[in-house]
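Suppose you are handed a protein chain with no further information: no name, no annotation, nothing but its sequence. What can you learn? This example shows the usual starting point.
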Amino acid sequence: MRERVVIAPEAPDDAARFAIVERARRRGFRRFLVDRPWNGLVLPHEGFGERGPDGVRLTSGAGPVPVQRVGDPAQLERALAATPAGGTLVIEWTGDRVIPLEAAVAARGRRFELVSIARSAREIPAALGALEHGADRVIVPARSPEDVDAIDAAAGGAVPAGLAWSLATVEAVDPVGPGDRVIVDTTSQLSPEEGLLVGSAAAFLFHIASEAVGSAFSRPRPFRVNAGAVHSYVLLADGSTRYLSELLPGDGVLAARPDGTARAIRVGRLKLERRPLVMVRAAVEGRARTVFLQEAETVRLSGEGGRLPATALVPGAKIWGVALPAGRHLGVAVEESVEER
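A reasonable first move is to predict its three-dimensional structure. Written in structure tokens, the prediction is:
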């Protein structure tokens, strides 16, 4: 979503606005709506446009585009009717914002570009997700660098790129008796190939597949990952790690596939229950790595030839996982000497 977010710095002076832009650029944002002039300050950005008394002047060359203030159905109808094919409609909502935006998205089709002005970071998800497609762009005010952090969180943040996937060779699968395991129910439907990255050591996390495929005795639950024992690390959407026992509803986790694609999803619910566990020990570049899982047919790891139930794992099987920096401080990777066993 972040590539569709346009940040409008609204600090009281040029230096403060420049600090907002710099913070946003470090967070990966590349589109800004600015006031000119900036008293000689150079503003390096790919741009979106400049605003003035005559409306928004787009860097694409189309402009000025007047901002349409919409607070009732008649105003929305007039704004839609006045937007030509291939044009741009910029709407500032003065009343309801979600249902009328859905109406604008439905009317837009592929005819024109739809830009919605948000009042705060909180409005970003609804603006970009209306009718699954949302506005083409959402303009969000930022009055301080801290506002950029809130915008970054609302836009989902940038998911880790270039994860180092590799195959681990199973050496042993040993029953270890009862333990506390965590089921992660998400607010998204997961494919059979998607899952969470979980492990006992941050240096290597195993790919635990979703329950999008059921068994002979259970229905599919495509929103669920039976992730593992409470002590295990899980990879979050921002690239940091957290213990499964510390996850909370609303946290962003990384739904990944062994083909390298990944997306951010939200935790909806957690279930901690005492169940029989197995310890899966696998070799990765000569090092032993472990993950503790519930011993059940619906708990599956992603193997070289497809998903493998925890109850069917045997020595010699190849299973997918991701190598990460071992050093962690409160879940964030740091450069330090550390040995995990």
